[in-house]
Write a structure and sequence with these properties.
Length: 505
């Protein structure tokens, strides 16, 4: 029998909200990857249903087997009997959440492989060679292509709405790895460019700094899941403009950047309704997550970044800067601004300067239930600017135990848990826990905060759960907007929640 977590299985995201119900391996439809916790190492008698109907095929079932190893991954095929409805994982008599759905289409599943040919039929027995050919010449909205394992030598992948390459809302074009196989892209001379709408990329591996650019400022609904990025990047591993994009379960663990501190793992520019969830950003000289924009042309558009959810990510080991920056410039007086950023259940550790820095024209940022551990100088820095307005900081765990993680320009910041600039407006700091005591706050206070030893299981070993004896247990306040922890499990387990990303079990 499959073994789940104490709270049962939790689906955190899936990589296919719609796709073919036929075709694919054994004609059971498009493979759908489910990511979460509590699925168990083996399937046993566990099942997955879509709108109450059991799926036709189970291709992968495992624990900590996603490219972000914090996540469990299941891959199933819907089969012809399923209809639109919730995807549910059933483990040991417990059912998962029901807030992710799948809509079957009558689309086609195509194939591409390193050994294929673009003169072939793009089917399993005769695959094509390049994503460029399949997506632009074969696929229609609602179709999928499965990429076989091995090294692909594509010279350019450029998907353009202007040439009719987009998917549609509810009928995306899916570009997925064949389950259990590892398609590798090594040609870093050109990025994988998506100037289109409703394109999903999942399970691909990018080496030598090859990147993905969601490049159009008017694009909608592009998703990148469960992909890895290695080597020496340029400006970013994934860069976005546009609306309704999702980056989830990706692993950017890079060795540096050709442009120094201007190289970041994830670069979020002009756009809104964005979700950055359960990614890893590690090793960039700039920032793990760079939420930033500025004038890019003369004249230029008004640049706005709004309604961004940053949840469940690990941002670690920025070598010259910090984990996350949230900042907007407006050199041309176009009215640029950032409004509505939520940071919750993230881990920020071992970055050169700071866990998070906020500056420029930024308003309405919620920072709740994050774990900040041994960043080089401070956990959180808020710039001395009147244009920073409405920052709320609650139920976080700040552990600034003495460390040597700052190696560059360390004099830029004092050592502290939090520093707030004097002119930043409407900043609320409440019910956080600070380690080690005493709490060191510059320019602000936390009258409901606690301080002492954090009592982490093994912070240096990346286990940020609290021990049974931690003095931080139960020191948070109830936040209706953050009722699940990093692992998707309900909080609190007692009367009041624990600070940080993990609720004690």
């Amino acid at each position: 029998m499959a073994t789940g977590s104490l709270g049962g299985p939790v689906i955190l995201f899936t990589d296919a909200e719609a796709g073919p119900k036929q075709g694919g391996p054994n004609n059971h439809g498009v493979p759908i990857a489910l990511f979460g916790t509590g699925f168990g190492a083996q399937r046993g008698t566990s099942t997955v249903t879509i709108n109450g109907v059991e799926v036709a095929s189970y291709l992968v079932w495992g624990e900590h087997n996603a490219n972000n190893a914090a996540l469990d991954m299941i891959v199933v095929q819907p089969g012809p009997a399923v209809t639109l409805g919730p995807v549910v994982v059933h483990v040991s008599g417990k059912d998962s959440n029901t807030d992710y759905t799948f809509a079957p289409t009558n689309g086609t599943v195509y194939y591409a492989a390193p050994t294929g040919s673009d003169t072939a039929a793009c089917v399993e027995s005769s695959p094509c060679a390049t994503i460029q050919h399949v997506v632009t010449n074969r696929m229609q909205p609602g179709d999928a292509v499965l990429i076989r394992g091995g090294t692909l030598t594509e010279s350019e992948i450029w998907i353009r709405d202007a040439l009719g390459h987009s998917g549609q809302s509810g009928r995306p074009k899916l570009i997925l790895n064949f389950p259990g196989e590892h398609p590798i892209f090594t040609n870093s001379a050109r990025p994988f460019i998506v100037d289109a709408n409703y394109i999903t990329i999942s399970g691909l591996h990018f080496q030598n700094g090859k990147s993905i650019g969601l490049g159009s400022e008017t694009s909608h609904g592009n998703h990148v899941f469960n992909s890895t990025f290695r080597g020496l990047i340029d400006w970013d591993a994934i860069g976005t403009h546009g609306y309704d994009h999702v980056l989830a379960g990706n692993d950017c663990s890079v060795s540096g950047s050709t442009v120094g501190t201007q190289g970041h793992c994830y670069y979020i520019s002009h756009g809104s309704n964005l979700k950055i969830r359960y990614n890893i950003g590690r090793g960039a000289p700039g920032y793990g997550l760079h939420i930033f924009d500025q004038r890019r042309a003369t004249p230029d558009i008004q640049r706005i970044i709004s309604n961004v959810l940053v949840e469940g990510n690990l941002f670690a080991g920025s070598t010259l800067r910090s984990g996350i920056i949230i900042a907007m410039n407006d050199e041309g007086n176009f009215g640029n601004y950032i409004d509505g950023i939520t940071l919750r259940n993230n881990i920020l550790t071992g970055n050169n300067h700071l866990g998070v820095t906020i500056g420029g024209i930024v308003r309405n940022v919620q920072i709740d239930h994050n774990t900040f551990y041994k960043n080089g100088r401070q956990g959180l820095y808020i710039d001395n600017a009147t244009t920073v307005d409405g920052i709320t900081i609650r139920n976080n765990l700040f552990d600034q135990t003495t460390n040597s993680n700052c190696t560059s320009n360390c004099s830029w910041y004092q050592e502290a848990h939090i520093q707030k600039g004097a002119t930043a407006r409407n900043v609320t700091v409440s019910t956080n826990y600070y380690a080690p005591a005493p709490m060191t706050l510059i320019g602000t206070t936390d009258t409901a905060g606690g301080a002492g030893l954090a009592g982490l299981v093994n912070g240096d070993g990346m286990d940020f759960h609290l021990q049974d004896t931690s003095s931080a247990l139960g020191r948070g306040m109830m936040l209706p907007s953050v009722l699940r922890d990093f692992e998707g499990l309900l909080r609190p387990t007692t009367t009041t929640p624990d600070p940080g990303a993990f609720e004690h079990r």
